[in-house]
Amino acid sequence: MVSVGIMGGGQLGLMMIMEGRRLPFKFFVMDDSDSPACMIADKCFSPSNYKEFVDSSDVVTFEFEHVSEEALIYAHDERKLYPSLDAVELKRERYKEKEYYRNHGLPTPRFTVVRGGDEALRTLKDEFNNYGVIKRSKGGYDGKGQYFVRGDPAVASEVKGMDCYFVVEEFVDFDFEASVIGVRSIRGEFSAYPPTFNLNLKGILVYNYGPYGDPAMQEIVRKLADSLNYVGAMGVEFFVKGSKVMINEFAPRVHNTGHYTLDGALFSQFDQHVNVITGSSPLSTEVTTPSGMLNLLGVEKIPQISEGKVYWYNKKEARKRRKMGHINVVGKDLAEVKGKIDNLMKQIYIKGLDL
Amino acid sequence: MVSVGIMGGGQLGLMMIMEGRRLPFKFFVMDDSDSPACMIADKCFSPSNYKEFVDSSDVVTFEFEHVSEEALIYAHDERKLYPSLDAVELKRERYKEKEYYRNHGLPTPRFTVVRGGDEALRTLKDEFNNYGVIKRSKGGYDGKGQYFVRGDPAVASEVKGMDCYFVVEEFVDFDFEASVIGVRSIRGEFSAYPPTFNLNLKGILVYNYGPYGDPAMQEIVRKLADSLNYVGAMGVEFFVKGSKVMINEFAPRVHNTGHYTLDGALFSQFDQHVNVITGSSPLSTEVTTPSGMLNLLGVEKIPQISEGKVYWYNKKEARKRRKMGHINVVGKDLAEVKGKIDNLMKQIYIKGLDL
Fold first, then answer.
1. Residue ranges, CATH 3.40.50.20, chain A
2. Does domain A176-349 correspond to CATH entry 3.30.470.20?
3. Residues of B whose CB is below 8 A from A18
4. Which UniProt key words apply to this protein (chains A, B) (predicted)?
5. Among A286, A104, A106, which residue's Cα sits nearest to residue A191?
6. Which CATH number is A2-81 given?
């Protein structure tokens, strides 16, 4: 039986195991024993025990790219890591990711890389007329470390005097945000789900639904995955403006905007990921029904609702912005899906969203 | 966190746990530690330890009705057993099940109950003109203990001299077999999936697909479930002849003909079962796409196919007729689903089905 080691015990690892159980895999998780995925893993390893974790696993993956560097490197050195370190490295420094897009002819918003907060503010003024985004190159997740300036640079004053790399980027007045989940095998076979419409607020995904948007995005994902010789599932987020699409960023892992595949497709992104990292070819990425997903952000109790299917991650405590679970919905068309999401938004966030 | 105890560690228990993981349940299984469901349970109990198993569980159910009687009775006495002992009792003696249908105005083939094999053969001749089925009242599963006589009673000569109850039943020259999965809550709420077309050979299910057949079958299932004050998912098998439907038998549990719900509906039969026995209301039983299922009977290795989704039960050894896994397929219509099943039949059973 093949043993799959997952670094990180959050909801993405949890769903990987849930979905992986239809085939005889062993799942090992590297995280605290009370993390969601550890609770249903075949065995849980403390992060300090990373060598034993990697040695016990036939292949190693991660559900979150911000895990211990030494564990990643050890798994890489043992030739067990999928996707590869290269993909993770791009996420360690935002400017490398942006330059990667530019160097590979992948569409992305116009940007300049600078060193130092003062230089970032100057560049924002000189090159972008104080209308753009300053992003810290290192760190940041779910919108952290990003400053959106629409005329008044005071909102980014925090960066003054900071001595680190920044990406200063044009502000894209997009029509909507979208994303595509792609999956690529060890032999380079590629497949992608159709794009979805995503609603992000304050840098965090609230809901998404699909299929929606230009299938051309799938080809961009293929190009990115091929260029990286990527193995696994990946999520790529786009800005869409008219007929133009631009990559905002990618995640070298299963992605929140792909949770709908648990119920909107025969094979989910989690299923795909586990399959390709263990040597299989991508499975069908056709969707079987229009569908959507709503995140349960900071929600304290399992909602009692009948309009969708609740996935509850069983985290110890609810915190503002924390993803506590999600709800998947299906419908005969996108209007029905959207209607269900709208109803759920009212039922779940009675007092409005607090982000 | 609610603890669900499952008696029996086969594939039905395995899928109950797989599906139950989207909500924070603990799953305890009573069976050998190397049984499929035990391997992914939170804790596994030996059948001799049934008291500790029941005491540890908030609710107790079974994935197979032929489990230890004393364990069932203990769980019943502790008021934890769903569905109830009454439903199981009907499956202990086939004649009780048949009489139950007759007494409750539920359509079923004409039958006579007799004691002794010789009397069974005499009844078959006198009342059914040697054209009918002799079924041992006790035992029997997947077609065992049943003798189909079409003119020549010699095929049932095994029963001669046997001193036990038999059901002698008319032979129904049905157009097709069908089934419905129903689900009923503690408060009596009921819902049912649409019927499916089932192909049984030698008393064992080979494949099924749907939705197919008269929705009136759903109402018969409701009547049966209500009369039993049933709690949980149940599978009811029918003979269909023209516009007439007759119950062949029912199973007081999730059912092989409901495996398609894992991929053809938002909520699966397993999901429903776990939810209602823990106090929730039935979830939507709408299907999201035409779909079907093919059993992997006696198949030794995980099939490498791309036309469907393989569920492999990870049983220690393959035996003739043994259900080693199944494949779910979906399609835009039943013709596409049926086409995929036909293709899979050729790929999986290259030398034909050996039952």
1. 2-81
2. yes
3. 18, 21-22
4. ATP-binding, Ligase, Nucleotide-binding, Purine biosynthesis
5. A286
6. 3.40.50.20
